[in-house]
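Quick look at the format.
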Amino acid sequence: MNTDINILIVEDNPGDFKLVSDMLKRHINQSFKISSAVLIKDALEILQKEKFDVILLDINLPDSRGLEGLEKITNQSKSYPVIMLTGLDDENFGMEAVKMKASDYLVKGQITENLLIRSIRYAIERKHGEEMLKAKNFELLEIDKKKTEFVSMVAHDLRTPLTSIMGFADSLTNSKLKLTEEQKVIFIGYIQEESRRLGRLISDFLDISNIEEGKLELKKQKTDIKPIICKTIDMFKMDVKDIQFKIEFENDLPEVDIDYDRIRQVLQNIIGNAIKYSPAKSIINIALKRKFNEVQTMISDQGPGIANEEKLKIFEKFYRVDSHISRLELGTGLGLAISKAIIKRHGGRIWVEDNMPTGSCFIFTLPLD
């Protein structure tokens, strides 16, 4: 059953109103809800209270002449399509009305039922098309804005390690500085670290680009997730000496159908963040258990925690929490966004909760089916 089309007829001539309303009532394939007004003033008051699909507007009313009524209605209610009703002598006004964004005009002495219905449907479809086009234009502008922001962020983040590399390289090649062998080794170490950082930045930017284009590919195979966690922890232990790791694995966990490298990337991102925000001599807990038809990984720290208003934002691109609470240099702000996309691509979920009495607990699930 068709939804009623809500029509407002603004017409001061009772005969013309009856002619048009009877045509609408006779139409068997579409039902109409008809409201009426005699004056523009009354129409404006009605439009403040009710919504309409189409307005049928007489070109000459007691309180408006010519295009004055159209102008008043469109100024107040630009979202409604307006069809002008003109007399035989007013056709030029009808054409001018269309130029003023009226959807159509009909000459009263020539209106037929089919012509009226067709004009109403055209007005509604045209308005719908304009709204879709407006929404699409807005969407394209937002995409363009995000691309500009992305390029700006990439340029900024890549410039920092490049500047450091160039600075240390210039110092190494500057004979006037007369660097000692020990200083040269230190500077080379800085260049190596900044080069690795640059590589991580480029990798993150490529990942987020592939994610946005829907090109994130997974190479899945049945895998025991426990060794991935242990290898990831061992990697961090080489550089982090003042954090203790505690693991708790449930017995007899089944293998999971995953992309080994991508899940390790998620673990590196989350555990790396836990290390950044954990105080010295604190404990990071990693737990693995089965819950219904999923395997659940929980990584909790004893850091400052995450404010409730930030718990969703941290999974957005380029979002960084306050740098003063991190004990290490912050990354691109892409790690958690990439992690969320990887877990979602696996059919799982990822979120963060409070870790009592202090800190955060990141949880992600991977389906067993």
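Next, a different chain entirely:
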Amino acid sequence: MKDDVINHSAKFSKSEKELHKYICSHLDEIQHLTIRELAGQAGTHPNTVVRYYKKLGYEGFTEFKGRIQNDLKELRYDDFMIRNSEQVIHTVNKMEALYRNVVKETKKRLSISQMQKILKEMNRRKYVDFIVYDANKALAEYASHYFFITGKICNVYTSIDEQILFAMNADPKDHMIFMISRSGASKRMVKTARIMHNRGMFTVLFSKSKKTIVSSYCTETVTASYVHSFKKLGDCMFYTSVKYLLDCIIASYYASNYDETLENVEDYRKEYLGVDTAERNKNR
């Protein structure tokens, strides 16, 4: 299929554009239609259907029906911006492409030695804590679940009074702190980071840059992808990037504490489900 024809629909006639919109909204249904039935349901002529699929590079209607949905899912785009009234198939494709691109770029910037340093410090501490607020709380809660599974005690602090009091009183020897801030300029984050810095606490910041006010008070700053633009899905980029980084940390910690983590999971299942899953699996 010709990507440039789809991505630049000006090459379609008016009737072909309308047909294209109909097809993109009824991809499952067209698998069972004839040319005449498709034309009737789309409000166009059979000849328009033939011109349309031939313009896309298909030799016959059977080939078109069999491949159009998968081919549309493989389209490439010049950018990830969502357009006014864009078809669902295109937004689905763009989100997949955005995820892949963000992970690729995040991985490219990732320092393995920095990750190893973070993991080493994590191994030395009993507690892993998060200082976050607003939407970043969801990322912290997600990671907290897995840190608990690996045997860490993980708390998420979201209110300013909790954050400052925690920073004032937590024992630096026992706690490792993750902070998440897109801009790295939040005044409340600066206050908390400064207190923890002065008390010698090991802090890791996920932010768009290593040159921010908050990062100047953090032990380590791990950069995540972000653009300050809603149209370019900047927030989605940041959350995807940070989740990937957290998953890397969680998976790496799990790998280096493999047996202990699996034992912890088994103990949890016994308590939660009231059964010995290891024994049950052995008897299968």
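The mean pLDDT is 90.

See the schema section for token definitions.
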